[in-house]
Design a protein that fits this description.
The protein has 8 helices and no strands. By secondary structure, it is mainly alpha-helical. Helix 6 crosses helix 8. InterPro entries: HMG_box_dom, HMG_box_dom_sf. GO terms for molecular function: DNA binding.
């Protein structure tokens, strides 16, 4: 008679265990379902990103192919027109290297020309061994020829077909796209040396004025000077800043008017 309550109690405990296991199983199934959904969403995102990346790579490749095609076309057009841009060494040292290299080219008994790097290193070493008097003499020759070249360059710009110049600059822009990706220096655009330079900004005018004041209180170190000037400009009243802004505005208007003559 006392066994019946115990049996009932035991059955209730068993039922509770079964219900608990059912609940645990249900929670596990829900967790696995959520996990599967999450995995599915992640896979979709990964595929989407991969597709985007593939598209970017395709776009980049197409862009480079277009650039290469433009370069080929520009090269053919420039070759057919025969545009030869005059040039001159930018320093006495470069002038010396240029002259020495021309001597090598004109002398069949000299060392092999294809090793340009080695030849230039040897020339550079010889330049360093020259006395100051020899270097000054070379500089004087360079300055005389530089003036002659400037006159020839101005004449070239007066007679050149400006459409060919535009074509050459377009060609250089296309080359610069490739050079930029390779981390190399860009080719400069062809610009008439007599064309006006773009005026400096209002802030740059202020900085220039401070430099030219030769104030002994100005910081001597470049980094300190930059910080000092930036701080002074911030403290400057707007009315005083407007003086520099007006100067820049006038200079820019004049620049636009004059530069139109060289287009």
């Amino acid at each position: 008679m006392f066994e019946l309550p115990k049996i009932i109690e035991h059955k209730e405990v068993e039922l509770e265990k079964v219900e608990l296991k059912k609940a645990e199983l249900k929670m596990t199934k829900l967790f696995l379902a959520k996990l599967a959904n999450t995995e599915k969403r992640v896979n979709i995102k990964v595929r989407g990103l991969k597709n985007k990346l593939d598209q970017k790579q395709k776009d980049s490749l197409e862009k480079h192919q277009d650039t290469l095609e433009k370069l080929k076309l520009d090269k053919k057009l420039i070759a057919s027109t025969g545009l030869v841009v005059p040039s001159f060494p930018s320093s006495p040292y470069r002038f010396y290297i240029y002259n020495e290299y021309q001597k090598l080219k004109n002398d069949p008994s000299t060392i092999v020309l294809h090793d340009i790097g080695k030849n230039i290193l040897n020339m550079s070493a010889n330049w360093k061994l020259k006395t100051e008097a020899e270097k000054i003499e070379y500089k004087q020759k360079w300055l005389i020829l530089k003036k002659q070249f400037a006159a020839e360059l101005h004449k070239w710009w007066d007679n050149v077909d400006k459409n060919l110049v535009k074509l050459e600059n377009c060609h250089r822009k296309n080359i610069n796209i490739i050079l930029k990706d390779k981390g190399k220096h860009k080719l400069p655009m062809l610009v008439d040396p007599r064309a006006p330079k773009r005026p400096i900004t209002a802030y740059a005018m202020y900085v220039k004025g401070l430099k030219e004041s030769n104030n002994p209180k100005l910081p001597s170190r470049a980094i300190d000077f930059i910080k000092y000037v930036a701080s002074k400009w911030k403290q400057l009243p707007e009315s005083e800043k407007d003086i520099y802004r007006d100067k820049y505005s006038d200079a820019f208007k004049l620049y636009k008017e004059v530069s139109n003559k060289y287009k």
